[in-house]
Amino acid sequence: MNEQELPSKLLEAAINQLAQLPGIGRKTALRLALFLLKKEISEVNQLGDSIINLRKNVQYCKICRNISDSEICNICSNSSRNRDIICVVETIKDVMAIENTALYNGVYHVLGGIISPMDGIGPNDLEIESLVERANDGEVTEIVLALSTTMEGDTTNYYIYKKISSSNIKISTIARGVSIGEELEYTDEVTLGRSIVNRTEFEV
To answer: Which helix (H) or strand (E) holds 9?
Structure first.
């Protein structure tokens, strides 16, 4: 598809923006743009406003780095959650996946990725130091490493273990019900839930 094939430069501009979204090719972007043209202006404004508000106003929890509408997320501020246990995950989507199992009642720590030298991601690019600070605050009794069962995930697990192994804290990892090489967000809820419940002590 090139610009000459389209009747409007405004349509082309909208397609170019929509096509930047993950999983959206130019054909799908065209369908979405034409769909939006059929909607009432008020409805399109609501969509645009919601996206702008998302980008401008959503925050990252200052404790666990989960997304939140305020400085502290709903999980960290929930008095019924067990703050003695911190589940370490790679992304916000992993928090959502584990929460959907309804089998974990601790709190979280979102690293924002995993160590991957091939992608230029080192320990300093992740929320590891803030995790160490939380582990050393005297309240935490267990760190659950719930990262993807990949080589990069295992490398990150080991790095975190070395950083906090001197603390008097139990360090565990999710059971291998999650297949090797699998990312948590694609694991079914039953398997993921069992992996959390049946977590085992981390072994070097």
So the answer is: helix 9-18
State the distance between the two ends of the chain, measured CA to CA, in whole angstroms: 53
Helix (H) or strand (E) holding 106: strand 106-110
Q: What is the mean pLDDT of the chain?
A: 89
How far is residue 39's CA from residue 29's CA, in Å, rounded to a whole number? 16
pTM: 0.81
Picking from 57, 72, 90, the residue at the C-terminal end of a domain is 57
Distance CA 90, CA 184 (A): 9
Which residues are CB-neighbours of 51 under 8 A, at least 6 positions away? none
CATH number for the domain that contains residue 53 = 1.10.8.420
The closest of 203, 204, 201, 197 to 98, measured between CA atoms, is 197
Q: Residue 103: CB partners within 8 Å, gap ≥ 6?
A: 193, 194, 196, 197
